[in-house]
Amino acid sequence: MRFGTDILRQADVLAAFTEDPPGVTRTYLTPQHRQAGDYLASLMREAGMEARYDALGNVVGRYAAARSGAPVVMTGSHMDSVRDAGRYDGLFGILTAIACVRDLHRRGKRLPFDFEVVAFGDEEGVRFGVTLIGSKAMGGSFDPAWLDAKDAGGTTLRDALLAFGGDPEAWRSLDRRGKGVVAYVESHIEQGPVLLNEGLPVGVVTAIASGARVRVSATGRAGHAGTVPMGARRDALAAAAEMVLAVERIASAPGAGGSARVGTVGTIEARPGAINVIPQDVSFTVDVRSGDDAARRRATQAMREDFDAIARRRSVVVTSDVFYELPAAPCDPALQDALAASIASAASSSARAPSRSFSQSRRV
Ligand SMILES: [Zn+2]
Questions:
Q1: Ligand 1 midpoint to CA 321 (Å)
Q2: Distance between CA atoms of 130 and 36, rounded to whole angstroms?
């Protein structure tokens, strides 16, 4: 049985539910969220599932087990998007799961567990600046203070939920801890080139990456671009340039035990920012990720030590502040093995790699 043609056609239908055609932009609790949710719920029902919106606007489909009282296996993904997104991000994990249920239903097969497919309303956090609202509620880490978060137009999450027909005060009822959920699995398009470069159709995620974010400030001394000799300068931007290269070098070095890291300087700002003035104050951010907490900590520490050494040599003052840290979340080994065996039975080979997208967030 091949499902690909149906899934691609359904993704095309969903791509039309967008706030800015022809690009795909679908944010939380908008009319486009409603259109996508209604369409997915109809697909779920056609596939033999019960489907409903929960209090926070997620669509939850259920394919009941052969017997009542069975444990629950959950899958699904997000139906919202970033601005000008691709048409398969998130939706792939929902549509493939519905396709599997449709086939089970057609063959009259029931599973030994209730199978739930969730289309999460918010993963990306584009509208309210809070990410993963639906899955955090289900995982028991929803913070009610988020209900007061506002979108760019000043509408609070609470009011948007009410207008959508949700129930902001019922977020506690979504908490699934201790309620018979034995596994959560998710299929997702790869948002990097690793599988593509290896020529592999699919891989198994070993861990949700750990991450650290560092804010760095370098302070030198401003001066006239024409009159201060090169040897007498304390140029904060030239120092920061060396620091950026240190991030790249440390992240690229092979880690202990083969643990891969990635490091990125994504923003940098130099002041006073005039063509004829030596930069005095530079701030930049570093994002470090790894599937391994210790490897990420070692890399981050090595970067900060290099920043200090570069600053000393160049007579600038540097401060670096780790303002966000997220531990790695290893995926269950038995589920990894089961998925790898299943892939091996259908494809010639598969890779295992950590996902370097964050699936949760925590401030330190
Ligand atoms: Zn995604």
A1: 29
A2: 21
